[in-house]
Amino acid sequence: VAMAVALSTVSAETHHHIRARPVEDNLKEKLKNKKPSKVNRSLKSKASKKKKKDKLQTTFSVGFNDDYEVMSGWIKIEMDKDDDMDIEYMIDNGPESCSDCYLAIMDESDCDDAGGADTLYSSSDDDDAGNPWSEGGDGAVSTTSSGDGAGSILGVNSGHDFDDHHCKVVVVIGPEPESSSDSWSKSSKSRKRQLKSHKSHKSSEDDDLNILLCGVLHKPGKTDDC
């Protein structure tokens, strides 16, 4: 009798287990074939759009400024839908320990036309508050004791959008050798160089901008567009 009860119990458990398995298999199959809800797809779409940024870049011309004949560098800009720019830069052989160097975008399309403060590309007339292209402003950069510098500047906004900045001139502005911390003195040879057409690319005395490097912003791989 005991054996019959045990066999009956095993049979019942086995039968119950066998009946339960198709339910589990069906559930797994349903979960496997379940498609993401519209809410999930919408969130994924918004996230991908948020990450997308337009890009501009340039490699600065070597020897643009006669006082820094071997100075070089590059700049890369990413701009979001709110026109905020994340700027990455690299400078070689510039002014040593420069604390008053800064980047600036100008309302010009050719480095030969890069000029004074009136060409700084900002929607604000207030040099101190709304214009990022000023000494100590959002575009400020620095160099080491060897004249090299690299870094990132986040959230710079000039009041203009991506298309406005495409093919605009971008420059590095800084001190002349005699006023920089590297304590260079301006020799007669350097003074003669300033009589050349570039004149160290310093604008009028009223503007007092000394351009060290210059390049034209373009889309990656699209240098011929400008």
What can you tell me about this protein's structure?
The chain has 226 residues and is an alpha+beta fold. The longest helix is centred in the N-terminal third of the chain and has 32 residues, at 2-33. The chain has helices at residues 2-33, 38-51, 162-165, 188-193, and strands spanning 54-59, 72-79, 85-92, 101-106, 140-141, 149-156, 169-173, 211-216. The chain has a 4-stranded antiparallel β-sheet, with no helix packed on it. The chain contains 4 helices and 8 strands, in the order ααββββββαβαβ.
Task: Set down the secondary structure blueprint.
Blueprint: H1 2-33, H2 38-51, E1 54-59, E2 72-79, E3 85-92, E4 101-106, E5 140-141, E6 149-156, H3 162-165, E7 169-173, H4 188-193, E8 211-216
Antiparallel strand pairs: 1-2, 2-3, 3-6, 4-5, 4-7, 7-8
How many strands in all?
8
Distance between the termini: 98 Å
Neighbour order of strands in the largest sheet: 1-2-3-6
**Unreliable spans:** 14-18, 41-45, 179-206
Write a compact overview of the structure shown.
This protein has 226 residues and is an alpha+beta fold. It has helices spanning 2-33, 38-51, 162-165, 188-193; strands spanning 54-59, 72-79, 85-92, 101-106, 140-141, 149-156, 169-173, 211-216. It has 4 helices and 8 strands, in the order H-H-E-E-E-E-E-E-H-E-H-E.
